[in-house]
Amino acid sequence: MRLRAEASRLERELAASQARVVELEGLVVTLRERVATLAKLVFGASSEKKQASQKSTVPSSREDAGAATGEPLRRRGQQPGSTGHGRRDYSGLETVEEIHDLSENERVCPECGSPYAPFGEETSEQVDWQVRIVRIVHRRPTYRRTCYCPVGGVLVAPVPAKPILKGRFTTQFLARLLVEKYVLGRPLERVIAALGADGLEVAKGTLVGVLKGLSVLLAPLDGAIRARNATAGHLHVDETSWRVFEDLAGKANHRWWLWVFLGPDTTVFHIDPTRSGDALRRHLGIEAEACSLEAGRRLLVSSDFFTVYQSLAEIEGVDPLWCWAHIRRYFIRAADAHKELKGWTKAWLERIGALYVAHRALSDMRVGSAGHGQAAYDFALALDAIDVVRQKQAGDATLHPAARKVLVTLDHEWEGLARHEAFPELPLDNNAAERALRNPVVGRKNYYGSGSRWAAELAARVWTITATASRAGCNPLTYLACYLDACGEAGGRAPSDSALTRFLPYAAAKADLAIWSDPLSGPGP
Asked: Where are the alpha helices (H) located in 198-302, listed in sequence order?
């Protein structure tokens, strides 16, 4: 009996050990996949950039065109044998002429002393880079009354308009400060160092106070853009981490989140303490307990498969358009972690590449045109081919576990991926939102984040305004300077009503857009 009990105990321990081994082996596989993915992100080339030795399976219009015609890809840049466009014309720049002439002694014949006669001239150009810090002194002569009439005793011209009433900086200076910090991503310390190198010594606290004042002036313009973006019928949405170095009650760390909402003609940034769906709901005006949008409204959301977007898709009236570029990366990461899946991944990338080619052809066709019906059929055919293979492979008992994991994700998100067939005018991926985040990410690398909550709000406001203005073809520097000029004319307050509507890039007059798009036509110093 004792031996039988001992054998039973050992069998149980063996079974537990075997189960533990299986568990650890699974953990090793998971960690290996994670290491391969992180190593590729840090040291590898982008999975969406075509290598010279690879066939075209990357979703880009340039490669789609080559794949569709069967012709070799056109090299980037100027083509051999082309006439080119000549040297760039800089005649629009402010011009200073310098005459370099020979002395009188050099303009005579060295043999007989006869003078040389004028014979035209030779010209060449250089482009100089000058940064001028100018102190502008406003002198306003005063005039006293010389009669005894019951009128004002002293006359003087009004004080020049300033957006910050007690400030010392011009609108051009203020606009350039915003562009340097938020559009070009330069830390405030480097901006101060650059100003010092050009002769202006300014304290950091001075510029911080200026930025606080500018945040108030930009708030109404930012709010109008956000309101329009929140009512759009289609949004690209994405998020990335952001640091806000201000202690917040109930928050254990300084990790915040930068959200981007890309509409048809607006781009909105929002920095929020959480990565939860509350940030999405607040922007869209959806109550926390609401399970649907307001009656009659439909919203298409292009995004990745993050759980927050999954929960948003559960709201009635919201339809997800999942990102094909993201599911494509799942296949690539599986092959990075398991070399035996290279062939399997290659076949899947070709199927997805064919889908992009068909989608590109379909989106280029005008609805009702002769080729539109055929292009729609080709796209449906490419989508059906993926559907058939995914279902077939899902039933393959011999499929590699990592491959099966990818197919489970593909199956789970299939409805949102296949919904693109009904909206061929919209992109297959969410790359537009990822590209919109690039500029803030450059700032994050340079100055780590925001020092306080108000600074985070200002950053989001400037990115919202400048990104939306850039989409309308505006030069951010000229546009901001003109807007701040309007603030000065309004007595140091943000313009309102029709004066504010004038500065909404998507509703602006063509004449204003032409002014704002020209970097040389902005206000002077």
From this structure: 204-230, 277-284
421-474, pLDDT tens digit by residue? 999 999 999 999 999 999 999 999 999 999 999 999 999 999 999 999 999 999
Which residues lie across from 144 on neighbouring strands?
154
141 contact partners, CB below 8 Å, separation of at least 6: 156, 157
Neighbours of 401 (CB within 10 A): 10
The pLDDT tens digits of the residues spanning 479-498 come to 999 999 999 999 999 999 99
Q: How many CA atoms lie within 13 A of 285 on its CB side?
A: 11
Residue 234, token pair as written in the block: 């289609």
Contacts of 313 (CB under 8 A, 6+ apart): 301, 319, 320, 416
Considering only CA atoms, give the Rg of the chain: 32
How many residues does this entry show for the chain? 525
- Angstrom CA distances, 389 to 190, 332, 333, stand at 55, 17, 19
Q: What are phi and psi of 110, to 5 degrees?
A: -70, -15
| Contact indicator for 504, 224 with CB cutoff of 8 Å | yes
Cα four-point dihedral sign 324, 325, 327, 331: positive
In contact, 448 and 495? CB cutoff 8 Å: no
**pLDDT greater than 60 at residue 78:** yes
Going by C-alpha positions, the residue among 410, 327, 335 that lies closest to residue 33 is 335
DSSP string over 65-94: HHHHHTPPPPPSSSPTT-----SPP-TTS-
Share of the chain above pLDDT 70, in %: 92
